[in-house]
Write a structure and sequence with these properties.
Elements (H helix, E strand, L loop, with lengths): L17 H16 L3 E3 L7 H16 L4 E5 L4 H11 L5 E4 L3 H5 L8 E5 H11 L3 E8 L10 H7 L2 E8 L8 H11 L7 H13 L3 H11 L3 E2 L3 H4 L6 E8 L3 H25 L5 H16 L16 H15 L4 E5 L2 H13 L5 E3 L6 H9 L6 E5 L14 E4 L6 H8 L11 E8 L3 H10 L3 H7 L12 H8 L6
Helix pairs in contact: 1-2, 2-3, 5-6, 7-8, 8-9, 11-12
């Protein structure tokens, strides 16, 4: 049985849901017994929050000492954002970005250091010198291949305790499970050779007894709750905004174009006035939004290197986890070319998605295919096409790849048309580039801002007069480093 729920630590700004409290109690119990473990809750149940609650609780009990989280690149900033929101007392260092800057900072002076597997491989020497309280592997399968440099770098880290977080079922890939435990508790599952003989090969051959034996062996050290089990504790819809940081090349392109567009818009407004510049303003803002989605959406001179898209990488990470957790996913984007790129990412993950866009002829057939239990688990929908009378109630996960100016359209896409949440709890992810036009648009939309309304007004319509040149140009202002 699981330990009883505990009181939330003082430094936690939210009230944990009952199953999260039990998760915290389980993590505390592991700590007191001196064990490592895997928190393997289903995607979207708040593994990050439970881990942060543990770190803030231990700090309240035992005083400050650094812990390290190693996560996929696209998730590193998510840890920083969630810590700022839920455990503001923890000081957080992103061990990321410029290598020279990293070397001038002392990681031991922070409560929480967050890095990616790639940076850890490069900086293993430095980080191996720090004595951490916890080393936490997020999405531990990134370290799965026992022979990879990831696994080697991870094993060199020194810490009092080790944890792994994963949202995907673990026992159906026994060798990954062995690699994770080789980090958490070396020797717990024997040598890889004996493990293959005793468990991996028999399980691959369909031996139920070997699987049951492995499950009972790891059971005390793994906590996994399924979304369906804790559904009564969840609201019908959980929304989260997931931010990603552009890489240096994408950021440089964004700032350069932003400056150019601001200058040309300023001239246009001076020449013809704000109402008649309305279409140019929208076109310019659209170009900035496209850089956030994927720089390759903009025409580039032949032979130029197009920077990779941070958001597309984040999308791939979320989609991989969703598919491994057998989710049924609706992906919304406004740009047809972007939809094609999203479909390519989904195909690389081994799934052929459905696609519904403005030109789709047999809409009903496409929707019916998604609604069938045996149908494809992913449908990519053009936000405009998704506006009317669609029933996608089989979905339990929604991803908005690019934020929409008008929150009502986005809500409508999430809710009324799909009548989501009717049959099951739904998780909604909004993907946003930090320090970009997307964040500014979100801020406007959330305030039901008249600037947003002015931009949405028909050209020369009554709302368009309400915005000033200064307000428009503020949308293009350079971003301050965060």
């Amino acid at each position: 049985g699981s330990p009883p729920p505990v009181a939330s630590p003082a430094g936690l700004t939210i009230t944990l849901r009952p199953y999260q409290s039990q998760g915290l109690a389980w993590l505390q119990c592991l700590r007191q017994l001196g064990f490592a473990g895997i928190l393997a809750d289903d995607m979207g149940l708040g593994k990050t929050v439970q881990a942060l609650a543990l770190l803030v609780w231990v700090r309240e009990q035992e005083g400050p000492k650094p812990s390290l989280v190693v996560a996929p690149t696209s998730v590193v900033t998510v840890w920083r954002d969630e810590a700022a929101r839920f455990t503001p007392d923890l000081s957080v260092l992103l061990w990321h970005g410029d290598p020279r800057e990293r070397r001038s900072v002392d990681p031991a002076a922070f409560d929480l250091v967050v890095t990616s597997y790639g940076v850890l491989r490069r900086d293993a020497d430095l980080l191996a010198k720090v004595g951490f309280r916890y080393v936490i592997l997020d999405e531990a399968q990134s370290a799965k291949n026992a022979a990879t440099q990831n696994a080697r770098a991870v094993r060199r880290l020194k810490s009092e305790r080790r944890l792994a977080l994963t949202g995907t079922p673990i026992e159906n890939r026994p060798e990954e499970l062995w690699a994770t435990f080789d980090f958490l508790a070396p020797g717990f599952l024997g040598s890889l050779k004996s493990f293959r003989k005793r468990y991996a090969k028999p399980i691959a051959a369909g031996d139920e007894q070997a699987l049951a034996l492995l499950r009972s062996r790891i059971q005390p050290l793994v906590l996994r709750r399924l979304k369906s089990e804790v559904a009564p504790e969840l609201p019908p819809k959980v929304e989260s905004t997931v931010r990603c940081e552009m890489g240096p090349a994408q950021r440089a392109l964004y700032e350069h174009l932003s400056g150019e567009l601001a200058a040309s818009i300023r001239k246009k407004i001076e020449r013809v006035g704000i109402e008649r510049a309305h279409l140019d303003i929208l076109a310019a803002l659209t170009r900035l939004r496209q850089i956030c989605c994927d720089p390759s959406l903009l025409p580039a001179p032949p032979g130029t290197r197009v920077p990779p898209s941070a958001k597309l990488e984040l999308f791939g990470e979320l989609m991989r986890e969703a598919l491994a957790s057998e989710r049924r996913v609706v992906v919304f984007s406004q740009f047809v070319e972007m939809q094609k790129r999203l479909i390519a990412v989904i195909r690389r993950l081994g799934v052929e998605p459905l696609w519904l866009h403005g030109q789709s002829r047999h809409r009903d057939k496409i929707v019916d295919a998604f609604q069938k239990p045996s149908g494809p688990p992913v449908i990519v929908v053009s936000l405009r096409a998704g506006g009317t009378g669609l029933t996608l109630t089989r979905a339990d996960t929604v991803m908005h790849y690019d934020p929409w100016w008008n929150p009502a359209v986005e809500r409508q896409a999430t809710d009324r048309t799909h009548r989501l949440g009717q049959h099951q709890q739904v998780t909604v992810y909004k993907l946003v580039c930090a320090r970009s036009i997307e964040e500014r648009v979100l801020a406007l939309a959330s305030r039901k801002d008249r600037v947003a309304e002015g931009l949405l007004a028909s050209v020369g319509g009554p709302g368009a007069k309400a915005i000033t040149a200064g307000e428009v140009l503020a949308l293009f202002a350079p971003e301050l480093p965060g």
